[in-house]
Amino acid sequence: MNLYKTTLGAISLSLAMIMAMTSGVAHATDALIYKNPQCGCCENYADYLRANDYDVTVKPTHQLSSMSREYGLSDAYQGCHLALIDGYFVSGHVPVNLIEKLLAERPAIDGITLPGMPLGSPGMGGTKSEPWTIFALDEGDPTVFAIQ
User: What is the pTM of this model?
Assistant: First the structure.
């Protein structure tokens, strides 16, 4: 019986260790960012994601607006760049805590966007002067994903 209890204890400990390692907010580490070739703030955003443990590939393109529209982003909701992360799009300078929320909750949407280039947002210079509204998009109308 001692061997049985020891083996059972080892299995329980192993399972507990696996659960502890995977219980945190897991995120996909790969991010593919499409950006206009001359945009420096998009490079700053890529560095921001890298600093938060994402493996980022940046692809310059002159087709960013049309690509964004293909993902369902009208001109009014487009951000400065378009990132593809774990089956979702993330458009614009979205803070990483909201990307983590998206990946943890896995809502039935296509992606999230922070339209424009708001001052003080990740990768942008300046000081934040007002709350940012991050929208969720799917095939229907945009909804508010978060205000930060």
Answer: 0.81
